[in-house]
Amino acid sequence: MSNGSKKLVFSYNAPVTLTFAIVSLIVLVLGYLTGGESTQLLFEVYRSKISLFWFLRLFGHVLGHATLTHYASNMTMFLLLGPILEEKYGILDMLEMFAITAVVSGLVYIIFFPSAALLGASGLVFMMIVLVSATDMKRGEIPISMILVMVIYLGSQFWDMIVLKDNVSQITHIVGGLCGAVFGGVYSSRRL
Predict the structure, then answer these.
(1) pTM score of the predicted model
(2) What's the CA angle centered on 17, arms 13 and 20, to 5 degrees?
């Protein structure tokens, strides 16, 4: 018997985004279980001797989060923007953008902040915010929405970097946003 209703099915609609969020949650739980030792060893980037762990941290610091609040604030935007971008750019391009943004932000932090450690996906989130605003980019045109997003988000980060003395890494947000702008131009031109 069929009553015309369809069966409700869950969809793993954005594999890169969803897998990233799940792995980040596992990393957070593991960090709690080890008293932060696993996070410091594998998921924070900081100046140290170049080794296998150094390379792992350079890519993996975006998976680490200090607290559940830190994780939730990043993942809310990440899960909102990720599926949109994954649909437009595809899995491989998204993985490439994530890796480049992680390495660039990690290296900037190591070079300019030698006595501090960096962890969290906020650089990726800012990359995604700017990138999603560039989704309508066409050859020879720059969307005004992208310019406004960059002015508002990145401008506020520059301001916060100058005025506030907190534990938030505004430089990572700025680097992520700049990566998003570059990716918007480069990846959009590939599709034209």
Answers:
(1) 0.84
(2) 135
